[in-house]
## 1
Amino acid sequence: MFKGYIIEQLIRERKVKKADVYRYADIQKATLDNIIKGTNVPNCNTLEKIADFFNVSIDIFFERDKNDNTMYNGNVIKQLLLDKKVTNKELLRYLGTEANASLAQIVNGNPTVKRLEKVADFFGVSMDVFFDREKPFKACPSAHEDNELQYKEKIALLERLLEEKDKRIALLEQMNQLVNSVEGRTKSGQII
């Protein structure tokens, strides 16, 4: 998650003026203020310029929260058990002798990588699922609010454009053949 307030901290620590930062980043003062407040997330170029100004890595602006979705989420195991209609005992049996713990200890505790790998194998999923890193694809509206109908219209227009280009190519090939045949006749001594 982007942390704009870190820019404010850097400004104070380095004792620089905001004006120097927004001029260097080639942005307006209001834009910098909004970035610091967190109401505006800068694009990559702006962020690189700000990081260069302070001579820091871009990563400094993306500190992880305790609530960041990269933490282990054992509730995913409960959900997989429900979705796949599998009992706790079946999972524990699959885990074998390592499973001297109850399912609650795996779900609520901090299981080892080895144990999580076995759980992932049991369900046929990636380990990323347990860390909420694997998300299903969701179609998102673009900035221009294109929708499926508009895309279909664009595809139809592009197909028509291709047809016109094919016709033009065919016509040019015919003209090329005609020119070549005329050149061939004049070289052979025939006058047209």
## 2
Amino acid sequence: MQTQLKRFSVFGGFLILLAILVGDAYVTKHQLDQQIETGLWLNHTRQVQLQIGEVESLLKDAETGQRGFLYTGSEQYLKPYNQAATQVDSDINELAKLTSDNHRQQAAIADLRILARQKLDELASTIALYRSGKQDEARKLVLSDAGLNTMNKIRAEIAGMGDEEASLGAVREAAYRKNIVLTKTCIYLTTTLAAFGLILLAYYIIREMELREQYTRDMHTRERWFRTTLTSIGDGVIATDQDGNVTFLNPVAEELTGVTTASANGRNILDIFPIFNETTMAPVDNPVAKVIAQGKAMGLANHTVLRKPDGTLTPIDDSAAPIRDDDGKLIGVVLVFRDISNDRKTERVLRNAEKLGAAARLSATVAHEINNPLEAAVNLVYIARLDPNAPSAVINQLTQAEQELERVAHITRQTLGFFRDNNAPGPIDLEALIASVFRLYANKFLTKRITLQRHFGKCPPIHGVQNEIKQVVSNLISNAADAVAIGGTIIVTLHCVEEGSRTTVHLTIEDDGPGVADENRERIFEPFFTTKQDVGTGLGLWVSREIVERHGGSIVVENRKNGDRGAAFCVTFEASMEKSEAAAIQG
């Protein structure tokens, strides 16, 4: 609407300017015509005045020739007379023709014609008398003043006619000059108006050009901003025209589709965005085509995967919406989609967390129910071992049974303690804690003939809950013992690293078992993930990582270096004292 108004304003300005120029041309032409007409009439007056003078001159010449003849008798003096006699009538007729529009002049010419004839007749009479030898009578006629009176009347008529033409000439001269002034005024005025209109129109056009340039710059700025935003957004974005041909892909869309912007531009969306049902692998209707057909926003059905050119399938979620211009006409479609693989993982973790919560409650219940009869069994073994009549072999077996029952009781107490979280944090001596775990698994080490290698440096204590850290070390030692073959080796290394004022304690537990496959390395800390088939629950490493991270530490797994087979778990904790205190402990 605003653009149409501006166009109408410019067109209206041109029309007004054109009207001014046309008016200027019309008025100027009219004034020039008036000026030409006035000039013609002024020239006409001058012609009349010249013609009057010509008639008067002829009559004077006729009278002069007559007198010269009378005084000399020579015929050569009659030439002016003869010319006047033959020409006066034609000159008077020409004068009458020139003044045909003026009735006063016509009346004066009629009188002049009579007087001129009388004068010529009077001159002819004297000449005839002279030729007939009557010179005295001819002179007497001349001296009678009849001819003088006639000539005076002629002069009076001619003077009157001259005055009439002079008056008309003055009026026409004034009109001519007035027309010149009016013509100049009209030219100046219309030229000024036209120039002013041109200036206004030029100003308006220049201003509109500047505004359009500014608008174009703003549009380019906004376009760059939107393009940068779409490029930086975390979801994939594809834009198409009204026919579904691709016009834009952001980097995320390039990564998810496996197609670059350069190769996708101009291609149909169906070619670069093939989607299928995740379960049946049947093709799914493209949402862009549905938006073009129905003109409204559309979303994907659940369980949809996007296939890259290399065949890789990515689960996605997307929506498509129409792009419309100011008139509401559909000019394109924008498709926004994202990889929901992490969402799927999160959902699995949440489901596993629910399972873990149920397992935790069940474990706590089982541990609680087992603890009471277990304590009774421990007490009965203790009483039986004190029987003085029992054989020594039985006593040894009862002692071993008491130790095993104590270990089971310790595990149940750990289980209850872990889920009750009722232990207060404090300083933990990792070296002593590791030694206690070794004692816990001494029988297992002995049974599998496992070799333990200890490399302990002097390290400051860490801060945490003793039972929880012991649970972590116990899980790692137990996994290492399960992983190695009979006669295998477990290496436990404890050392410190100083970085400025910060001291970290590193515990590494290595084994020479089969190691961890690359595809399992990222999943090994997930709940319920296990490679022990029916033996493990898949919770040990997940619980260990939760405990370590809750204590501000980290735990990673790697396969051993330098060609050695087996896995290495490295746990890192912050030391609980300043650098100076740690240095004092290290000696």
## 3
Amino acid sequence: MRVVAVVVGVLVLCALSAFAGLTAGINLNPQSTVRFVPDWGSVGDWVSGVGALLAVIASLYMVQRSERFQLARDSEQVMLTQEPSMAWLTLHIACKGLRSCTVMDLRIGHGGKCSSLKHALSDRNKGVFPARLEPGEMVQLDWSGRDLIPTLQTICHLGLKNTDGLYFEVVTGISVHRFGLDTLTLEELQTGADAFDISLTKREDGLPF
């Protein structure tokens, strides 16, 4: 809004300067031009008109700002935080917007392939979905040790050539939110895969294991 006001003010100043310069130029060179006597009383009308224009611009700005705020209120905002550590993976799914959301599923995918992780949740997280979250609330998912095996097998069955581009998808009642796997998360999954002799990518013979 300040930028708009400054721009309009500069334009008004330029217009007045040009008007004054035109008046002086014509009056100082009467032989080549027709004498021009401006009606300076009309300047007030111009200022009034510019003020009305600024009022309209301000109104439009406030309307757009209100619409953006309303859109933010109505939109669903979900955050996924990844916290890998030695033989342990923790995910936090949080509702960060101004409206509640219902998390229906967590998926892992690559390109156009995607698989649900509902069956790969640890025993302490079984039955967590659907999870209704109010603004500011979150659900925590934990895997440790052998808990990771079903998740590793799910990735394996995607038949990937490499793990670059793996992502999590948080599925809610109205949308799907995608989050790329952090480097540390990938490293932790690869460490677990090596420990349990599971290949996350397709072997040269085409077999997943």
## 4
Amino acid sequence: MPQIFVSYRSDDEPTAAVLVHRELGAHFGAEAVFLDGAAIPPGTDYTRALLEGVRTAKVLLVVIGPRWLEARAPGGGRALDQPGDWVRAEIAEAFRCGLTVIPLLVGAAARLGSAPLPADVAALARCQDLRLRPEDAEYDLRRLVAELEALGLRAAPAAGPERNGQVSMRATATGHSRVYQAGGNQVINE
């Protein structure tokens, strides 16, 4: 179940969204981070999958690049102003569900501040943002992870070595005592 939903415009900063997905997935676990192309299997009703992904998350990250606000809809006009715009629908659903919404400004993207936003997503302009700068991406991603952990999200447990169902055992005898070692990390003294 995803804890983090990554929302982005495919004609704005898709590479940044993929980078964020990869880095957060490595830290929190792949299942904890929702990115449409990676989380929705072929043949699935994406409309239901997107909204369900938002509803089950705790945090919505909105990846905002320099073209995000003025991206155009196929029929003309600003995409964000269209009721059927999926980025708008994801953000509106996140606010309806009470998620923490974090704008992630990429590169030189400006803060939304007083930008004209539709009423159902206007609160986005008041959300404290974070920045992802190409020249400081490693630092900015570490800060993003720290901020998400401060919100209560936890790192995935580190994977242990694979055992393939095999157990090894070693015995050592000296004098009247014997030491058995099994599984590589358990010691029994006798």
